[in-house]
Specification:
The chain is built from one helix and three strands, in the order ββαβ. It is α+β, with helices and mostly antiparallel strands.
Length: 85
């Protein structure tokens, strides 16, 4: 039996700051759209398209985007394991 091909579904999270001072965290952008010579520049266009769809569905247009930056990776906290003897 043939194996199914895995679909890559990795995303990159971005923090978005809007003109009215609001902030939206962890906006997901497909990692396949990023990289190359443009770097993270396509992320703003993708997020603007997402905002347009959200605004159309809710009836309230989103404000203009001021800045887009990658969300920081969560810190991994190692908890020491207590051994019982």
């Amino acid at each position: 039996m043939a194996l199914k091909k895995r679909i890559e579904s990795s995303f990159v999270a971005f923090d978005v700051t809007y003109a009215d001072g609001t902030r939206s965290s962890n906006r997901r952008v497909p990692s396949t759209a990023l990289g190359g010579l443009d770097g993270d520049a396509p992320a703003q266009e993708i997020i603007q398209e997402q905002d347009a769809a959200i605004g159309a569905a809710s009836g309230k247009p989103r404000p203009a985007i001021v800045s887009v930056a990658r969300s920081p990776l969560p810190e991994v906290v190692k908890v020491p394991i207590k051994k019982k003897f």
